[in-house]
Design brief:
Largest sheet: 4 strands, antiparallel
Shape: globular
Number of strands: 6
Strand content: 35-45%
Structural class: mainly beta
Helix content: under 10%
Distance between the termini: 16 Å
Protein name: DUF402 domain-containing protein
InterPro entries: FomD-like_sf (IPR035930)
Length: about 70
């Protein structure tokens, strides 16, 4: 955690960091679902490991989005 205030949560995710990611309800990766149903198919989460370069994630509490800086 880089910063955790009432206005901002900033988190650095280094390569290899354990995290959770969205998957379809049956465990299939989201990108394997056809576009027509990709955003409406039931989902759950699964444990994963962050791969690639690190990322700084910025989120304002209460906002339904975040900004990821690669």
């Amino acid at each position: 955690v880089v910063q955790d205030t009432d206005e901002l949560l900033a988190v650095w995710m280094a390569p290899g960091t354990e995290c959770v990611r969205p998957v379809l309800a049956d465990g299939t990766q989201v990108h394997a679902e056809p576009l027509a149903t990709r955003y409406t198919a039931p989902r759950t989460t699964a444990r994963s490991t962050w791969f690639g370069s690190g990322v700084l994630k910025l989120a304002a509490p209460g906002d339904p989005w975040s900004v990821w800086l690669f």
